[in-house]
Amino acid sequence: MAPPNGNDRDTPGPTRRSLLAGVAALGALGAAGCSRVATASTEDGGDLLDRLRAAGVVRLGIAGEIPFGYIDKNGELTGEAPELAKVIFKRLGVDRVQPVPTEFGSLIPGLKSQQFDVVAAGMYVNPERCEQVIFADPDYQMLDSFIVRKGNPKGLHDYKDVVEKKARFATGTGYAEIQYAVEAGYKESDILIVQDQVAGLNAVEAGRVDVFAGTALTTREVVKKSAKAESTKAFAPLVEGKPHVDGGAFAFRPGETKLRDAFNVELAKLKKSGELLRILKPFGFTENEMTDLTAKELCGG
After folding, report:
1. How far apart are CA 256 and CA 46, in angstroms?
2. d(CA 169, CA 281)
3. Within the chain, which residues score under 70 in pLDDT?
4. Predicted TM-score (pTM) of this structure
């Protein structure tokens, strides 16, 4: 989710994300999952789907970010993208998924260098990324929201408010929200960059900043137990003067259109039946995050 550069650690284009939980478990599982996969043939849409069916396992690149893809306290792979992957790949004849943990900014390089088969990290689709990988259609859409002090004393509801009221502003490492704030007129050098939404909440609660910007889902989840902070109503940031809605999706190597297309067929069935929402709901997703956006739209094609 598409915005200019920013929201994805070291890869072109934005997407919020950082390592939140299960770091130790990620490392342990990463050692088992980081051997490279064989280079696929790109003729006639690639042969990766056939090879995955033969192997019975698909390697998922994840970034350890709640709720998108992470290792839980029991050492189990979970998150909206891995749980969706389990369902779709089983329908495609691939029974098992194997996590390959990495940092968010290493997902596209890792995919391109054959370290895993697919990116399953809720990655936002944007034109810059579309030049490097191919995306399935988005499985969710996302608006932005702020973490502010209880009662929102400064009345901050969008990036324009942040600029006009000279609010002290923070967001996460590599987040798309950096560019959204800059586009609204906020000086990039004045932005406090923190690790993630938990650090953002702490900064707001401690009074170090007036506002932290993130996705509507992550902000509303992280403030649930806070006595000092709240999340604002979700809103669409402006990109080139127009309201913009981000969409997160699975990413594949450019030649593997056969796998991508088969994935899209099953994803469309889940959307139509309502099962997609049932899969994503435990991770905080609501009907508002369901979408008919296409990768083509978000890629700018």
Report:
1. 5
2. 30
3. 1-43, 301
4. 0.78
